[in-house]
Amino acid sequence: MSDAAGNDLFPSLDSLEIVLWSGAGLLAFVVSAAVADLIVIASTRWRLVDLPNRRSAHALPTARGGGLAIVATALLGMIATAVRYPDAAGEIVFGLMLPSLAIAIVGFIDDIRPLHAVLRLFIQIAAGVAIAAALGPITGFGLPGVEPISLGALAWPVTIVWVVGMINAFNFMDGSDGMAALGATVTAAFMAVLAWLAGAHAMTLVAGFVAAAAAGFLVFNWTPARIFMGDVGSAFLGTVFAALPLFFPSQQRDALFLPAVLVLWPFIFDPLVSVLRRIWNGKNPLQPHREFLFHRLIRSGVNHGRAAILYAVLAICGAGVAMALIDREVTVPVRLALPTIVLALAALLTVGTEQLAQRKNIDGKASQTPAMPAPRPR
What we know:
Elements: H1 15-46, E1 49-50, E2 62-63, H2 67-84, H3 89-112, H4 117-135, E3 140-143, E4 146-150, H5 155-172, H6 179-197, H7 201-221, H8 230-243, H9 250-261, H10 265-280, H11 293-299, H12 304-325, H13 332-337, H14 339-360, H15 362-368
Antiparallel strand pairs: 1-2, 3-4
């Protein structure tokens, strides 16, 4: 990957600047945690809490809207990066900041008063168009050293579907203490490392700030969670993770897109399996439900923390496969065979969850469990 280090758009960093930006990342962690704590206090005072219901994985009223801490901190990091790299400011502002901010605003409104699904979808498509226009669409898929498969006329539709799908997939995964926040921390940290190796230092800083913001929020979102990120946070992160792989230099994007998104595979695979399961069973896949694999794990007796760690470990395994894919010393046949590791992990997660669910008979119990009553106001 060293051949990209001299890219004029992403000049190299000296040691002092590395220290300064590392300090900025630590500051972002502290700021995100502090803002999340303030939101907990404000939500408790104004009773802006998420009450448990039949679909909830939590049992106590919990502060919501905590994703504002992630949004504010990450956006400040993006602004700082745009100032440091003025040549990349246009891509950062129009390809990352504005689309993700628009989705965050929609998510915040939806957290307070649910919006119509068609309106949300329209805005998500608009965000996908904006990202593709600013950063360029996905033109093909490939691996380092392997000729990419060109998408041709499908580039724009595939990019928009990717953005909309990622927004909703990561939003779906915000249903368990620490799940989305820990997953976001691992994902953003890996993308920062991959961008550093590619010489894309502006992307490195953006991803690093997102990782720090998610980690700071995780302090209060870890089980038992004192606050949830809500759609404002999860949809924002989904937008950022959809856009970041498109932020690689154009000459590297086709080869690095798949390795970059491999770290996201558990957070894409679980919603996909759940949607397909509901379609197979003749149910509405768009109706809110508790049939995600992580829901089934928790109802089977796996606590929130272990479920979140399991998904983080699976994401790290995907990152490990990605690192092997970009290693130029790995032969092409081995490189092509490596993704089967992720497929094997996906099969193991699905089968293992299903076996555990059958052993605990959670589907039968779930149908007999009454909705948890809301607490009486004091």
